[in-house]
Design goal:
The structure holds two protein chains of two kinds. By secondary structure, chain A is of the alpha/beta class. Chain A is about 35% helix and about 25% strand. Chain B has a five-stranded mixed sheet, with helices on both faces. The chains are: A alpha/beta, B alpha/beta.
Chain lengths: ~300, ~120
């Protein structure tokens, strides 16, 4: 089972929830601890809480075109086919713009002179190793200045495959743009962490639309609960979103997290809460698959 | 000789458009006869790589010079490779005024990217 923890709004507590949920499950099933993927490759931080020891590292990136000027006839086919305008034929020169290239390979495939080969262009690294509680931990780190996170996330997800029956928890980047969609893709359940503010609600609404577009069931964890915030509860009811957990706005939690502590270390009773969240997700997914199996 | 200027409307009486890759129109003009043609800038709607797309257009037109307000790194490298000279509008506000300044040699010639560029991968 693959659960992605996302939010829409940044800073709602995705990583706090994801890391504590991972450890709660690891303690519950020590023979099969979960796989944890920090997919927020622009600013990965789950390692600060789960303390993995990195045992493997791999450079990742895209294959970008390299033009052999001796073979190139400057016919312009490559520039014509490039959707990203990453290759231009300028008089007697064919120029590649690596920062624009998405690595689709169209130019290489369509060059009538076979003058284009593909060379790797590094964009970051992916790392993995065992972490707290026996969790299999992996994350991606996008190089500073690289604008595109998706290839790093895609290669991270491909590199680290779960064992049969192993639960996968993906910590998503904030927002609802391409890196989030890439992280969420292939998930069985989307756990959305929000906060009871107009901003939190606004972005939860955006995140829900990603979930429905990808046809992935979703539930909500409300963090920093500080008295009733009716509009959020009404929204969740209207959207048929189960509220799986409420975490209070509390100084002890904020201080602990700021010191690099996990929520389950600050308040051990959350181990039970997160296991409960997990079993609720399990039963939601079971009901869903039962419904699917029924003849119509 | 053909030069290209970035403009806000598709005619020679237009005001200048300070953007290169995303300037609304490209006015291709012969500065001696003032014979002109307006083209919608192909870079305007591009999700990325507007500068290289506009530069590709300029190279296909066999322009010798381009006058605009800003050349990002990709546009600069592309135009440089195509052997097209780049000039800045400077104080000019209209296309016609810019052509006059160009002919009088009053425009600043660009010798490196003038901006950071805005649109990259993603």
């Amino acid at each position: 089972m693959r659960i992605t923890i996302a939010s829409g709004k940044g800073g709602t507590g995705k990583t706090m929830v994801a890391t504590s949920m991972a450890l709660s499950l690891a303690w519950l099933t020590p023979d099969k601890p979960p796989l944890f993927l920090d997919c927020d490759v622009e600013a990965p931080n789950a390692h600060l809480f789960l303390h993995p020891s990195v045992t493997e590292q791999q450079e990742v990136g895209l294959l970008i075109p390299l033009v052999d000027e001796a073979k190139c006839t400057h016919c312009g086919k490559c520039a014509e086919v490039c959707q990203y305008h990453a290759i231009a034929v300028l008089g007697q020169k064919t120029l590649v713009f690596p920062q624009l290239c998405h690595g689709c390979g169209s130019c290489t495939m369509l060059c009538p002179e076979a003058a284009i080969s593909e060379v790797p262009d590094r964009m970051g690294v992916i790392e993995r190793g065992p972490a707290a509680g026996g969790i299999t931990f992996a994350h991606g780190i996008l190089d500073v200045g690289e604008p595109m996170a998706v290839p790093v996330i895609r290669q991270l997800k491909k590199w680290v495959q779960p064992q049969p029956g192993q639960v996968v928890l993906c910590d998503a980047p904030p927002g609802t743009s391409c890196p989030v969609v890439e992280t969420v893709r292939g998930s069985d359940y989307l756990l959305l962490v929000t906060e009871p503010t107009p901003f939190g609600l606004h972005d939860l609404n955006l995140a829900i639309q990603v979930a429905s577009e990808l046809d992935i069931p979703a539930g909500v964890i409300i963090n920093r609960v500080n008295g009733p915030y009716q509009v959020l509860d009404e929204f969740c009811a209207r959207q048929n979103l189960p509220v799986l957990l409420r975490i209070p706005f509390e100084r002890a939690i904020a201080e602990g997290v700021a010191q690099g502590k996990l929520l389950v270390e600050i308040h051990p009773e959350y181990t039970i809460h997160f296991r409960h969240v997990f079993s609720e997700i399990e039963s939601i997914l079971l009901q869903k698959s039962n419904r699917k199996d029924q003849p119509t | 000789m053909k030069i290209i200027l970035t403009a806000t409307s598709p005619n020679i009486d237009s005001n200048i458009d300070g953007r290169f890759g995303r300037g609304a129109y490209l006015i291709v003009v012969d500065p001696d006869t003032l014979e002109w043609q307006a083209h919608p800038n192909p870079g305007v709607g591009a999700s990325g790589g507007a500068g290289t797309l506009a530069a590709q257009f300029a190279a296909n037109q066999h322009a010798s010079s381009i006058i605009s307000g800003d050349f990002g790194p990709n546009a600069y490298n592309a135009l440089q490779a195509a052997g097209i000279a780049m000039y800045l509008f400077g104080v000019c506000t209209t296309v016609k005024e810019s052509i006059e300044h160009f002919k009088d040699g009053k425009l600043e010639r660009v010798s490196g990217p003038t901006g950071q560029g805005r649109h990259r991968r993603g």
